[in-house]
Write a structure and sequence with these properties.
The complex is a heterodimer. Chain A is α+β, with helices and mostly antiparallel strands. Chain A folds into four domains: about 5-85, Orthogonal Bundle (Arc Repressor Mutant, subunit A); about 90-140; about 150-240, SH3 type barrels (Roll); about 250-315, no CATH class. Chain A has twelve helices and 13 strands. Chain B is α+β, with helices and mostly antiparallel strands. Chain B is built from nine helices and 13 strands. The longest helix of chain B is centred in the middle third of the chain and has 18 residues, at about 105-125. The radius of gyration of chain B is 27 Å and the shape is elongated. The chains are: A alpha+beta, B alpha+beta. At the A-B interface, helix 1, helix 2, helix 4, helix 5 and helix 6 of A face helix 1, helix 2, helix 4, helix 5 and strand 4 of B. Chain B: Pfam families: HTH_PafC, WCX, WYL. Chain B: This is Proteasome accessory factor C. Chain B: It comes from Kitasatospora paracochleata.
């Protein structure tokens, strides 16, 4: 029976951490049973591929593996130096530890949730006093990432690797191919967005992950443009969602109706016993928000907003062309 | 079953942990690592096959009688390991997001902020890529704090709540169960009016009072929220919505059973809704970008509402 991968990885990690001098690939192959098996039963190639993958996996887990090109009479040597792999002293009090326990539970995505619990396990092993019983079980902040593009983009942004993907713009009938240097990911109102440099448009762009169609493909090469120090994805997205508006609209609202609109009012004055007049920020998408409330809302101005709402209502009334 | 990566990660921490705790109890270690005792025993079966030196012979002598765990040849390979970039990112992004949650108790926020600074310090360059991921939680801070208090004191709450589907204010008494934040924040509670479990969005709560009466929600299985906050029942009526390309967002906002591509680049979305007439606002919002095909009521109600609304805009209408 083949030896389980976790056992193989564990052996490689322990070998690399427990040596004071770099070990050659041959030495590792002779020390680790799974490698010996792969080499004897498979081929040199099979072993080499396995070894490379395993090294990458351990690096993903945080192990710093030094490669000494010329350690052993021209042979490459590998070792994980203790001083470079040790967690520095960290003193968290019980309150801080409890708060982190709550935070570590928020990821609903497999890779991130595995990484968060892995971090807690390392901290716990290092002596951080995490309590057994969970406080605050009634608070459940959740970070979902149901979009398939999340994980490949996260890795690409981390490693600064360009990607391509098919993207369907809002309202577009067909997706088109985009070539992007991914900078940052942001989750706002439960949806994920990517900011990056669009190579074809030669400018910064923001993409909504749910509109990526099919696979995110990693491209060879490196970023051609500089990554900005600070990327404010949220400011961009919220502006598109109608926030941060600089102009206002005037609408009338049947009193007691359309509560979500009334909370947005900058000013309210009664018109008569049934109607109030509200001044509300006029951002992107306001026409759709207003149409939702049907006869409980009347748009006074500006004229383009009034026309937008009338057009929407006409379509729903079946009075259009 | 956990994957090989997560298992390796865990076993590396496990040896560090066991080193400091000779004779550790299986149940306690499993709890500490957030795994089942079976998973832990699985790890303990692998560890004796793992060695600390090359050229064999020096395997970890870890064994268990099912109750306690002993490591007979403890050595110093088991040092606490540095955090990987992904580990630091996962923890820091989550901690910063929770710290930014409006209404969180000040003590908790300060503890988190302190913890974030310490983790950043300890993680060093591993913490750098955490700046590339951000999460914003939204909540109405005062309402959040009120509900949090009601939850910890175990008291009933009274709400004046905007029902979006019905387009009107409702008043209810609710036994609070939990506060769930996913983008927005929601109260899950037992609604005494409808005698059912309900989800309330905090930004639609117009008024809240914490009552003296103790909360007494029926014992319920926690709902699985992995598919979304709204989980329709299997026997809820089916709704079919056809949208043009500009209405594809409906599939992103509504939990649905199927979304079938249409030749024009639009979608035919099938979902279930306990109260299809509550989709009237959606029909109005969609305008020319889509229509609710069945059942017929929401589209018809929207049509009548639109006709009534257009009355306001007729030449000489009183409101202008």
């Amino acid at each position: 029976m083949a030896i389980a991968k976790a056992e193989r990885l564990m052996n490689l990690a322990l070998c690399l951490m427990n040596t004071r001098r770099p070990l050659s690939k041959k030495e590792l192959r002779e020390s680790i049973e799974a490698y010996r098996e792969a080499w004897q039963q498979g081929s040199e190639d099979a072993f080499n591929r396995m070894f490379e993958r395993d090294k990458d996996d351990l690096r993903e887990l945080g192990l710093v593996i030094d490669v000494d090109e010329n350690a052993l009479d021209g042979e490459i040597g590998y070792l994980a130096r203790r001083d470079r792999n040790r967690l520095p002293e960290i003193a968290l009090d019980a309150e801080e530890a409890a708060a982190l326990t709550l935070a570590a539970r928020v990821w609903q995505q497999a890779k991130m949730s595995g990484a968060a619990s892995g971090a807690l396990q390392k901290l716990r092993a290092a002596g951080v006093p995490f309590a057994e019983e969970r406080e605050h079980t009634a608070l459940e902040p959740r970070i979902p990432a149901r979009e398939a593009a999340f994980e490949p983009l996260l890795v690409a942004a981390r490693d600064r690797r360009p990607v391509t993907f098919e993207y369907r713009k809002a309202g577009a009938a067909q997706p088109e191919q985009r070539s992007v240097e991914p900078w940052a990911l942001e989750c706002w109102r439960g949806h994920w967005y990517l900011a990056g440099y669009d190579r074809d448009r030669q400018d910064a762009r923001v993409f909504r992950l749910s509109r990526i169609v099919g696979k995110v493909r990693s491209r060879a090469g490196t970023f051609t443009g500089a990554v900005p120090e600070h990327v404010d994805v949220r400011a961009y997205v919220s502006r598109f969602a109608g926030e941060g508006a600089t102009t206002t609209a005037t609408v009338r609202l049947r009193r007691g109706a359309a509560f979500p609109l009334s909370t947005r009012a900058l000013a309210t004055r009664p018109v008569d016993p049934q109607w109030d007049e509200l001044e509300i920020p006029y951002g992107n998408g306001l026409g759709a928000d207003l149409a939702e409330f049907g006869p409980d809302v009347i748009v006074i101005g500006p004229d383009d907003l009034r026309a937008d709402v009338i057009e929407r209502l006409t379509a729903v009334a079946g009075l259009g062309e | 079953m956990s994957n090989a990566i997560d298992q390796t990660r865990r076993m590396l921490s496990l040896v560090t942990y066991l080193r400091e705790r000779p004779g550790a109890e299986v149940a306690e270690v499993a709890r500490a690592f957030g795994i089942s005792e079976r998973e832990l025993i699985g790890d303990l079966n692998v560890l004796p096959m793992c060695g600390t030196s090359f050229r064999g012979g020096d395997l970890l002598d870890i064994d268990t009688d099912g109750e306690r765990i002993w490591w007979h040849n403890v050595d110093d390979v088991a040092q606490p390991l540095r955090l990987a970039a992904d580990e630091a990112t996962a923890l820091l992004v989550a901690a910063r997001a929770v710290a930014g949650l409006p209404g969180l108790r000040e003590r908790d926020r300060q503890a988190l902020t302190r913890a974030v600074a310490k983790i950043e310090d300890a993680a060093g360059e591993s913490a750098e890529s955490s700046a590339r991921v951000g999460v914003t939680f939204e909540a109405e801070g005062q309402v959040f704090a009120d509900i949090d208090r009601a939850l910890s004191e175990g008291r009933l709450i009274w709400l004046r709540y905007w029902s979006h589907g019905r387009g009107g204010m409702t008043e209810r008494e609710v036994d609070p169960i939990r506060l769930v934040t996913e983008g927005h924040t929601y109260l899950e509670g037992w609604c005494r009016v409808s005698e059912d479990r309900r989800i309330f969005r905090l930004d639609r709560i117009a008024e809240i009072k914490i009552l003296d009466e103790p909360a007494n929600p029926p014992r319920l299985q926690p709902r699985d929220l992995s598919a979304g906050l709204v989980s329709p029942a299997a026997d809820d009526p089916e709704v079919v919505i056809e949208v043009a390309p500009a209405g594809r967002w409906v599939a992103e906002y509504y939990t649905h059973d199927a979304a079938e591509e249409l030749p024009d680049g639009g979608l035919r979305i099938t979902l279930r809704s306990a109260d299809p007439s509550g989709l009237r606002p959606l029909a109005l919002r969609l305008g020319r970008d889509g229509r609710i095909v069945s059942p017929p009521q929401p589209a018809e109600q929207a049509r009548l509402a639109a006709i009534a609304a257009l009355e306001h805009y007729r030449d000489g209408a009183a409101q202008r």
